[in-house]
Amino acid sequence: MDYKNAGVDIEAGYRSVELMKKYVQETMRPETLTGLGGFSGAFSMESFKNMEKPTLVSGTDGVGTKLKLAFLMDKHDTVGIDCVAMCVNDVACAGGEPLFFLDYIACGKNYPEKIAAIVSGVANGCKQAGAALIGGETAEMPGFYPKEEYDLAGFAVGVVDQKDIITGNDVQSGDVLIGIASSGVHSNGFSLVRKIFPMEQKALETYYEELGGTLGETLLTPTKIYVKALKALKQTGVKVKACSHITGGGFYENVPRMLPEGKRAVIKKDSFDVPPIFAMLAKEGNVEEKVMYNTYNMGVGMALAVAPQDADKTVAALTQAGERAYMIGEITDGEKGVTLC
Fold first, then answer.
1. What does the pLDDT average to over 187-198?
2. What pLDDT band is residue 24 in, cutting at 50, 70 and 90?
3. Which of 26, 85, 240, 260 could bridge across to 223 with cysteines, CB 3.0–4.6 Å?
4. Pick from 6, 149, 187, 125: which is nearest to 72 by CA?
5. Quick one: the chain helix, strand, coil %, rounded to 5?
6. Rounded Cα distance, 65 and 73, in Å
7. Residues contacting residue 271 through CB under 8 Å, at least 6 positions apart
8. Distance in angstroms (rounded) separating the CA atoms of residues 323 and 82
């Protein structure tokens, strides 16, 4: 008896690392001090020493049950983007610039090509965010996960000068809410998605004119990464007073998180485009409208609060950065929370 007969193939682990190296290398930043394969990743802070008070910000998250679709469709090269997005968008919400990322893959059986495909997506997401993929872990866990399944999570670290941290503390009545369009469902609410739609190959491969693709392709569309768009906005001189990443819990949970006590967000539902997949989910699942807005992003992946005089400039800058942006509402005095009307 040996480790391989117990279900753990160390040689497959070595091959996975070799296959993923080319993807990881593409994410390197000048501050990266170590290569793949060490016991830890090292990252120099030398280039940030001119900040008045350099402050680290971090975020960690996973992909959730969206992975179930990847298993069914045998498509593994995009979920890594979701993993990175869920972490770096949170870092960006605080005004931070993501510096580096680490991933964790736990699987029932290490198929090197599949692991490399997953990491290629992680590397793609890191490149979109300008973050270096400086390390990670692939854990083969037979008996804990089915052979064909895996879990994927990650951790991002960024930096921001303390004076530039977005806190929401100076949000005032009359400030304008700007929404940045999502790419679809992103990576939240998939437990409900999987209850509404049949999780079968035939259903996922069905083409829908209104979706412009198959159901499976639409649902697997990667989460948008907003890091570079927010960086471009910052470079225009616009002060983002508050920022919310619309993830699990939709509008009702996430928007209030960016508000101080005594301020309320009023959002107009007809001010932004709702992708067809959400109407499809609501109809097929007989899901009430409030539940939809309490579960999904409904087409707005990020919400910002800016001063009224900066609203047009903000939309223009985000558009220039390649995003679709909308003025979706305003801040009023009132009980902390959100009103959708």
1. 96
2. confident
3. 85
4. 149
5. 40, 25, 35
6. 14
7. 179, 326, 327, 328, 329
8. 18
Q: Please say whether the dihedral angle defined by the alpha carbons of residues 62, 286, 265 and 324, taken in this order, is positive or negative.
A: positive
Q: Report the sign of the C-alpha dihedral through residues 67, 69, 72, 74, in that order.
A: negative
Q: What residue type is 324 in one-letter code? A: R
Average pLDDT over all residues of the chain: 94
Convert the pLDDT of each residue in 79-105 to its tens digit.
Answer: 999 999 999 999 999 999 999 999 999
Mean pLDDT in residue range 272-290: 97
Dihedral over Cα of 255, 260, 262, 263: its sign: negative
Buried b (16+ CB within 10 A) or exposed e, 155-166: bbbbbbeeebeb
pLDDT single digits (tens) 235-246: 999 999 999 999
The number of residues making up the chain comes to: 341
Q: C-alpha angle with apex 32: 31 to 34, nearest 5 degrees? A: 145
**Could you tell me if 98 and 56 are in contact, meaning their C-beta atoms sit under 8 angstroms apart?**
no
Q: Please, what sign has the CA dihedral across residues 330, 332, 337, 341?
A: negative
Q: Is 4 helix (H, G, I), strand (E, B) or coil?
A: coil
The residue with greater pLDDT, 3 or 7, is: 7
- Compute the radius of gyration of the chain from its Cα atoms: 21
- Three-state DSSP class for residue 18: helix
- Closest C-alpha to 132, from 151, 157, 112: 157
Stretch 312-323: mean pLDDT, rounded? Answer: 97
List 151's β-bridge partners, or say none: 106
pLDDT the model gives residue 4: 67
Structure tokens at 115: 């692991």
Instruction: Pull the structure tokens for residue 26.
Output: 């593409």
